[in-house]
Design goal:
heterodimer, A: 440 residues, alpha/beta, Elongation Factor Tu (Ef-tu), domain 3, Rossmann fold, 7-stranded antiparallel β-sheet, 12 helices, elongated, B: alpha+beta, 14 helices, globular
Chain lengths: 440, 588
């Protein structure tokens, strides 16, 4: 640890709680880092001489005469090309047995990009998964989470997306990642031969929860280095943001703050926005795209964490098991990519927007038909056809194991329309019907 | 609040962006101060005073700030700088010109001038020597992006003044004196093109604020046709995320019949602001033929920018709106989203350890919201001209629950309610405004009704109510069908349901991304509505419910093709002829 000569050492702690300590000290800056008996802490409150420190790894075993050394700086990360291929903990220290990274020291949690210096995102990210590319196309510079129940294969889908996305760098920020999942990511990236373009900051379930609070900022400081200094296309994966928010609530609770909805701190929106808003497209070509995971409890999206997230991110992706076909699909109703309008029909074929909407509308008709069936009513001929269509649509397009290009997705959709419906039932602009309805 | 010597103080405590300052002299509530942190001054606003301690909210990050740092109090509240050159600017919540800032990242303590001081404006006098004038009266005008921009007697002046002299027509900079006015005591006051105004105070330099009476055309059918907003009216759009609040707001700001559009992006996504930056310079205002950006000012305080400045941003936007209203212009003010503003209030109230109200929001939330909405309105200026601020705010209800405090508070303040429905958004029925739950109080105003009758048509009001009834009956019929099954209800129920679907698909749903469908002029709205109502009242014969369904689906498809075609173009007319053939078949 970086203690230097002639630094004042304080040895009289006045108060200790589960996560914080308080002591008398002068000349201390807000958000400054300190070392308390070898553990890292950060200044969260100053009143006169009384300085309150949040100890990331908890205060268990800290005595009132512990040695406290202030470092005179906020949390930092050394950035350079040496980051690539490496694994770090929440403090940015290597955990893969490799050497320390040499490079420029940067404060993490840096200021926001001036909105007028941003560029409108406009580059499609193709993933091959039709539930994403066809219905919810992703764009560079976008921020989007998976809303998923803990039992769904979100990490697998995310790893697939990351590898197919053709990013220059993939930065993994793992918060409360189980050791198994950590090894999963490591293996997948390794097997794909992609390890040299991956940087990982990982807080596993073995580590103290409050440490997680540093992970997104570490990952994004590295991302900004590659996107701004190197003009690279960077993809940041953050999993699981629900555990990050839980850590926020632990800290605010110990700071005696009045909780708002679902015991979350009143500042949850701003805290999450500060992270997600780092997603950006720069005019020079560099970009940061954030794909995150927010686990839900029982699919409840009205809980404060997914709710605030939904207002910040540019859409959300829902996974759901479709029992009709026995596969996990990307739910077309609840998923949304807000930036898709910037690319669909522009970088993809012009019939894309209309085909997408018609396909989803017909899928919704099928859901109504199913309700009718379940309530014991007779189905009309149209209802029967929508049910058949829904099965095929789910299997050929929505399932997460699909891997085809957008052109093929559109052709498959036209094929389904043709098989099950009349032109009027599909209700697409005439010029497209004329062009694509007939079998080629 | 002006004093001879500036009060100073020293930082005594810091929690996040709440800083306590020990002061050595008088300070005022909401006074602005600067904390002299290292090389950058951090701007802050006083929000509470106890004894010698002033609690200030800092508009920037307080990282690295130390106890003992010097603080200087400015002797005024947070102010906007008003003068020609505001249009097509991109400001942050404190009216810093974002384009003047250097570097990719926002630098802490970087404050930039909202106006261009060296720009030359061609000035024409309006007032002449000897005229009696008061605050807000016009002394002269310049042209700002082709819009007449009045140079006024500063809003801060009280009582009446006599014009001594107005400079001759010619080229001037904003800081040049363009007039000398004299108060009752004979004291002379030079007036330039620039004045300042505290954002939290309402500008009251007008004669009268009547009830709004003139509908404001937005081109959005489910607003204009069913629940119109007025010039000088207030409305709000609550909706869970993903229901299209922002797309709707952008559509309104692009299309509405306003002279000036001010958009406050308050705690929302930066990419949405970038969308405005990149699209508005391209888009043409159909009424003037100019680029939309020329009549637009953007206040961007995105969600990652400091929270305290977020609270200021909506006030900054309103003060700019009041300035342009005083010039006799129609201002449209959009704030997205007022919930983020309320959350900023909550964060600060929480740090001040105030007793919380519902959901930890401050107890006076409702009063703050009403107060803000009441600054909109239609006014008669002192010289008899009119001006207006139409305000539409979005609300992002937590968990999509419309009973939460921000929605409830706003409901008390705003006259139009455009509720976005999750169910409609899920089935991609955009704009997802729930036509049955939404309302416009203005439809009940006799003055608005009168205006509609004489400007849109005798039958219009009746038609609108008729359409609303059909929608309501359709919804009831649908519920019955869902309970009893297709066969369990008479065919009549299916007809009712499908008539409401017809209105839904043809009038309510609108493709914001289609060039033609995106904006519908009132004349076309009137035409389409009466066409649809003719069908709704026609005697149609069906043998079974399948026939009803198929027939109406075809009708809808036909109407949609019409919506996508130029009004009364050959294509449009052809679709219309086919449509009447389809109908004839059913009527025989």
């Amino acid at each position: 640890m970086e203690t230097q000569a002639f630094q004042k050492v304080y040895t009289k702690i006045t108060n200790i709680t589960k996560a914080t300590i308080q002591l008398k000290a002068q000349g201390i800056g807000n958000e400054e880092m300190a070392i308390v008996n070898g553990r890292l802490g950060q200044v969260v409150k100053i009143f006169g001489d009384d300085v309150t420190l949040q100890i990331f790894s908890g205060t268990e075993g800290i005595p009132t005469n512990a040695e406290v050394v202030f470092l005179g700086r906020p949390p930092q990360l050394k950035v350079s090309d040496q980051l690539a291929g490496r694994f770090f903990n929440a403090y940015g220290q290597p955990i893969d047995g490799g050497p320390e990274v040499e490079g420029e020291t940067r404060d993490i949690g840096s200021p926001s990009v001036n909105p007028v210096r941003r560029k409108q995102p406009s580059q499609l990210i193709a993933t091959g998964i039709a539930g994403i590319d066809l219905n919810n196309s992703l764009v560079t510079g976008q921020k989007i989470p998976f809303f998923a129940d803990p039992d769904q294969p979100y990490n697998q889908v995310m790893a697939n997306v990351a590898l197919r996305a053709e990013a220059d760098k993939i930065i993994l920020g793992g918060m409360g990642l189980s050791n198994d999942d950590y090894l999963f990511f490591k293996n997948v990236f390794d097997n794909a031969g992609a390890l040299d373009r991956i940087v990982s900051f990982v807080n596993t379930t073995d580590n103290p929860p409050v440490e997680r609070l540093l992970v997104p900022d570490m990952a994004l400081t590295a991302a900004e280095y590659f996107a701004v200094d190197k003009n690279e296309k960077v993809l940041v994966l953050l999993t699981d943001m629900t555990l990050f928010a839980d850590a926020l609530s632990i800290v605010s609770n110990r700071m005696d703050q009045i909780p708002s909805k679902d015991s979350m701190p009143g500042s949850l929106y701003s805290d999450l926005a500060r992270i997600y808003e780092k997603a950006v497209q720069f005019p020079e070509g560099g970009s940061i795209t954030i794909i995150a995971v927010t686990t839900l409890s029982g699919g409840d999206i009205t809980h404060a964490i997914p709710d605030n997230t939904g207002y910040i991110t540019e859409g959300q992706l829902f996974l759901r098991r479709d029992t009709e076909i026995g596969k996990v699909i990307v739910d077309p109703f609840r998923s949304l990519s807000r930036l898709k309008q910037l690319v669909i029909g522009k970088q993809t074929r012009t019939d894309h927007p209309q085909v997408m909407n018609a396909a989803v509308r017909l899928f919704a008709d099928a859901a109504n038909a199913r309700t009718k069936m379940e309530n014991g009513f007779d189905l009309s001929d149209y209802d029967e056809r929508t049910l058949e269509y829904a099965k095929a649509y789910s299997d050929k397009l929505l399932a997460i194991d699909v891997n085809v290009d957008t052109e093929a997705m559109l052709d498959i959709s036209w094929g389904l329309f043709r098989n099950f419906f009349s032109k009027a039932e599909v209700g697409i602009k005439q010029e497209f019907v004329e062009k694509y309805w007939e079998e080629k | 609040m002006e004093r001879k010597n500036k009060t100073t103080g020293k930082v005594a405590g810091i929690i996040a962006n709440l800083v306590t300052v020990e002061v050595d002299g008088p300070v005022a509530q909401n006074e602005i101060c600067f904390i002299q942190h290292q090389e950058s001054d951090l701007m802050a606003e006083v929000i509470k005073i106890i004894g010698n301690s002033a609690y200030v909210q800092v508009f920037e990050s307080t990282r690295g700030l130390k106890v003992g740092t010097n603080v200087v109090f400015e002797g005024h509240m947070l102010e906007v700088t008003l003068g020609p050159g505001i249009l097509s600017k991109n400001y942050d919540g404190l009216q810093n010109d974002l384009d003047k800032m250097k570097g990719v990242f926002l630098k802490r303590g970087d404050y930039t001038d909202p106006l261009d001081r060296d720009k030359i404006w061609s000035f024409t006098p309006i007032a002449k020597a000897g005229d009696e004038v008061a605050a807000g009266d016009w002394l002269g005008e310049v042209h700002e992006n082709g819009m007449p921009h009045k140079i006024m007697v500063p809003f801060k002046l009280e009582g009446s003044y006599k014009v001594k002299r107005v400079v001759a027509a010619g080229d001037y900079k904003v800081d040049d004196t363009i007039a000398i006015i004299e108060d009752k005591e004979g004291q002379e006051l030079p007036v330039t093109m620039v004045q300042k105004w505290p954002v939290k105070m309402a500008v009251r330099a007008y004669k009268e604020k009547p009830r709004p009476f003139k509908p404001l055309e937005t081109g959005v059918r489910c607003i204009d046709t069913l629940n119109p907003i007025t010039e000088g009216g207030t409305g709000f759009i609550p909706g869970p995320f993903g229901t299209g609040k922002t797309v709707l707001q952008h559509a309104i700001s692009k299309q509405a019949e306003a002279d000036i559009v001010i958009i406050a992006a308050c705690g929302e996504r930066a990419n949405e602001v970038v969308e405005i930056f990149s699209e508005f310079p391209e888009l043409e205002d159909p009424r003037t033929g100019k680029k939309l950006i020329e009549r637009t000012t953007i206040i961007a305080n995105t969600s990652n920018m400091p929270v305290a400045a977020r609270e200021a941003s909506v006030y900054t936007a309103m003060a700019l709106g009041e300035y342009y209203r005083s010039m006799g212009l129609r201002v449209l003010l959009m704030a997205d989203s007022t919930s983020r503003w309320a959350q900023a209030l909550r964060e600060m109230s929480n740090r001040l350890e105030e007793l919380p109200g519902p959901d930890a929001f401050p107890m006076d939330l409702s009063a703050i919201v009403s107060n803000f909405y009441s600054r909109a309105g239609y006014v008669y200026l002192n010289n008899g001209s009119t001006g207006s601020i139409t305000f539409i705010g979005t609300v992002s209800p937590a968990g999509g629950n419309l009973k939460e405090p921000v929605t409830e508070s706003t409901r008390k303040a705003a006259r139009c309610f455009y509720g976005l429905s999750q169910a409609r958004a899920d089935s991609k029925r955009y704009p997802a405004i729930d036509a049955i739950d939404s309302y416009s109080k203005y439809l009940e105003y006799p003055e608005v009704q009168e205006y509609l009758v004489s400007n849109v048509g005798e039958a219009w009001l009746g038609n609108v109510l008729d359409a609303k009834d059909i929608l309501l009956r359709g919804k009831e019929a649908q519920e019955q069908i869902n309970i009893l099954g297709d066969d369990g209800v008479p065919i009549d129920f299916h007809m009712r349901f499908w008539k409401s679907e017809l209105i839904d698909f043809v009038i309510l749903q609108q493709d914001a991304f289609d060039k033609i469908d995106a904006s519908t002029p009132m004349e076309r709205q009137e035409y389409m509505l009466s066409k649809i109502l003719d069908i709704a009242h026609a005697k149609l014969k069906f043998d079974n419910f399948d026939e009803v369904q198929n027939f109406f689906k075809q009708l809808i498809n036909q109407f949609k093709q019409m919506n996508y075609s130029e009004f009364k173009s050959e294509k449009f007319n052809n679709y219309e002829v086919e449509l009447s053939d389809m109908l004839k078949e059913r009527m025989n």
